[in-house]
Write a structure and sequence with these properties.
Elements (H helix, E strand, L loop, with lengths): L3 E6 L6 H11 L3 E4 L1 H11 L4 H15 L7 E6 L6 H8 L5 E6 L3 H20 L10 H4 L8 H21 L6 E4 H6 L1 H12 L25 H10 L9
Parallel strand pairs: 1-3, 1-4, 2-3, 4-5
Helix pairs in contact: 2-3, 4-7, 5-7
Length: 241
């Protein structure tokens, strides 16, 4: 029976792509990076409804995971799973190992994603094709206005993602890590992930750029509104106005 390791995250911008890359370079497991998100996008894009998403995701899991002959490292954004409880039961026969990668600072997480979305949207308006990553040299100069309603929606998505993770991991011994730990001790955190995944240690290299403990005025054009919204939602953050 193939081994299944599931890396769960409540939303993006928590370092999962870096971890995926390290696992992939080990050549010990096949890495699937957010395939259920792709299934969801395909179904909705073809005119389907949310009710159509889980059957399509279940079919994908049956074809690509439950019948796999190689060990699998499956990266899953929890909010993309249309039915968290059904997902849990579908993969149960493989006795999956669950790793959860989250971020303590929800405001930093939400802003990282929302700023990136604005960066890509601005590029489209200018006829440019931009990657989903703001170049470090231009990051400080890019200060979009982030609508408070979008921030509220983003925080709600993060919280829902954690609820889904709780459902998916119910009854399992789950290893939990934070982006902040990943930044401060990458070798230790990723080394533990590899060990729990059954991957022999190897001298991996990767880098992260900390997003946190900074000034909102260097990130957005409406810093006070963003801070007021965070306070309204009860979100604690290392970010300051």
């Amino acid at each position: 029976m193939a081994k299944l390791v599931i890396l769960l995250m409540p939303w993006g911008r928590v370092g999962s792509n870096m971890v995926n890359g390290i696992v992939q370079r080990s050549k010990a497991m096949k890495v699937w990076n957010e395939p259920l998100t792709g299934v969801q996008t395909r179904v909705i894009g073809a005119g389907g409804t949310l009710a159509d998403v889980w059957p399509a995701q279940e079919e994908w899991l049956m074809e690509n995971i439950l019948t796999a002959e190689t060990d699998i490292f499956l990266n899953v954004a929890a909010n993309s799973v249309a039915d968290a409880a059904a997902f849990r039961e579908t993969v149960r026969p493989l006795a999956p190992v669950h790793l959860v990668l989250d971020r303590r600072d929800d405001l930093a997480t939400a802003l990282s994603s929302l700023r990136t979305e604005e960066w890509v949207r601005e590029g489209i308006a200018m006829g440019e094709q931009r990657n989903w990553s703001i170049p470090s040299g231009q990051s400080v100069n890019f200060r979009p206005n982030i609508d408070a309603s979008k921030l509220k929606a983003a925080i709600a998505i993060i919280r829902q993602g954690r609820d889904n993770i709780a459902t998916i991991t119910e009854g399992y011994d789950t290893a939990r890590y934070s982006y902040e730990e990943l930044v401060s001790d990458m070798a230790g955190v990723v080394g533990d992930m590899l060990q729990r995944s059954g991957i022999p240690p190897y001298p991996f290299k990767a880098g992260t750029e900390k997003f946190g403990a900074g000034s909102l005025s260097k990130m957005v054009s409406n810093p006070q509104e963003i801070m007021d919204t965070a306070n309204e939602l009860g979100v604690e953050s290392e970010l300051t106005v």
